[in-house]
Amino acid sequence: MEVEEASDDAAVETAEEAKEPAEADITELCRDMFSKMATYLTGELTATSEDYKLLENMNKLTSLKYLEMKDIAINISRNLKDLNQKYAGLQPYLDQINVIEEQVAALEQAAYKLDAYSKKLEAKYKKLEKR
User: Fold this and answer.
1) What is the mean pLDDT of residues 101-119?
2) Which of the residues 18, 48, 73, 131 has an alpha carbon 20 to 30 A from that of 10?
3) HSE-CB of 80 using CA atoms within 13 angstroms
4) 1 pLDDT tier (thresholds 50, 70, 90)
5) Interior CA angle at 115 toward 120 and 110, to 5°?
6) Distance between CA 43 and CA 61 in Å, rounded?
7) Going by C-beta distance under 8 Å and a sequence separation of 6 or more, which residues neighbour residue 29?
8) DSSP of 29-52, one letter per residue?
9) Interatomic CA distance for residues 7 and 5, integer angstroms
10) Average pLDDT score over the chain
11) Taking the CA atoms of the chain, what radius of gyration do you get in angstroms?
């Protein structure tokens, strides 16, 4: 039976007594932890700060772009007003052109009617001449 007890002892691991680290080790570990935590938090805050700087730059660029677009819109509006004034100045001439065009169309119709009438008259004259 002693052989069995010896084999059981070999299979069982021995536990060491939990010892508290020395006071100097705890202090050093705390300093190391706080140092690493400070580095981590500094990195996080730096990243957040950089994000805000990026957003600020994007807002500035967007603001400048909107100012450019505003200037372009003002120029377009000014040019449109100028074009409308010029068109209004040309309107009487355009109206005259339309009236002349209508008169030319009426004159053309009258010329076609006169041509048709003269052809009929010529045909009658030739008919009478043959008799």
Assistant:
1) 96
2) 18
3) 6
4) very low
5) 125
6) 27
7) 21
8) HHHHHHHHHHHHHHHHHHHHHHHH
9) 5
10) 88
11) 53
